[in-house]
Amino acid sequence: MTNRYAVVLAAGQGTRMKSKLYKVLHPVCGKPMVQHVVDQLKTLDLSELITVVGHGAEKVQDQLGDDSHYVIQKEQLGTGHAVLQAEDILADKEGTTVVVCGDTPLLTADTLQQLLDHHDQEGAKATVLTAHAEDPQGYGRVIRGGNGQVERIVEQKDASDEEQAIQEINTGTYCFDNKMLFQALQNVSNDNVQGEYYLPDVVEILKGQSETISAYQTPDFSESLGVNDRVALSKAETLMKQRINEKHMRAGVTIVDPSNTYIGPDVKIGQDVMVHPGSILKGDTVVEADAEIGPHSTIEDCHVGAESVVKQSVANNSRIGARVQVGPFAHIRPQSSLGDDVKVGNFVEVKKASFGDGSKASHLSYIGDAEVGSGVNIGCGTITVNYDGQNKHLTTIEDDAFIGCNSNLIAPVTVGKGAYVAAGSTINKDVPAEALSIARSRQTNKEGYASRIKSIKKD
Ligand code: UD1
Ligand code: CA
Prior knowledge:
alpha/beta; 7-stranded mixed beta sheet; 10 helices; binds uridine-diphosphate-N-acetylglucosamine
């Protein structure tokens, strides 16, 4: 098989976005556009993936990390000039080079594979991925000759009225014979309305050398959506959201209201999970079979076990076991771990805490920096007093302990196995296993006091 290379164009500032953030770093369904593109490319069998980044665009490199090699385009003189920055690495290599723009997040690996197959079958030296656009405004138009062969691509700003009426657009994705690409790029000029070196001009140059030029038209225009401004960004978001939600629904997930459900591209969801409206599932979240999420839950980087229910709650970077009930209105903060059959009820905040199987904090509690064993009952209003103003300290509650309502556990402190803490206690010493600890002032009843007060006449 011929070697394959990919060049991702990501050096443009994206002035039309009107943003401090580099255009290709704007997220679509929570993932930066350029990462979408690179993730799709990674599934192809590539010998080299090179991303062209702008001067000072370290953030693009930080985002992609080892997924790519990088070349820097100091000045943004056009897409042709951008590809030329990869010359030192690629120019003398035999094979096929795919060029993709970093601002086309909806492009799929399947379509890229079809483009490559088409390019090989046609024996072409350049193949353009095209699409039919209802509204081709802003895209380069594909000019075909009388025989239907692709002749050249004309940019919107350089196009005549007649050319502007053409609805077949250049998606900005191409396959080239690698060596011919770099030879042709030497001959690209910037003699056009924008004064830029256009990559699509390579098509006309190779055509002029009587090389075979081909086009592969994707039936799905949405894949070619190029995001140049925030209006297109919102369109990309809607399309990507729909694509992701439909994938899950086809795999056996019930999404009650797909237009109000936001699932990240890398989230995994098991069969017969029910996702209610207003739910946001992000990052590397996994939801196991038969769980129920929402309404209005935001879950990021969490593992949610089978048959668990997470209602109107926020959970972050945590592990939630099987048959767990979270919420309504609970907050599971990072580095928490809930065992199986746990309950974390309304207005309970859990932070960097582990709960063993079957433990419950059903109402109005803060459990932070804590190790809670199994079978523990934490009464309403319990607070782990974890912070002394300087450092955080650990609270340990051993198996089967019972913490009465409205208790303060001043860390570092341990409540032993099976111990009881009386309601309203402020515990600052360890409680031995099986003990009862009462740490509150004794009650005094003053008989008849209220009546006496009421009988004193006012002036
Ligand atoms: C480009 C194509 C157009 C096509 C459209 C598809 C050219 C001249 N035009 O137009 O035919 O229909 O994409 O979406 O190629 N970039 C650089 N360095 C530069 C300029 C651009 O790296 O000097 C990068 C950008 O970051 C972007 C990509 O190349 O990711 C495309 O550039 P952009 O300015 O968005 O091109 P379009 O005007 O959309
Ligand atoms: Ca673009």
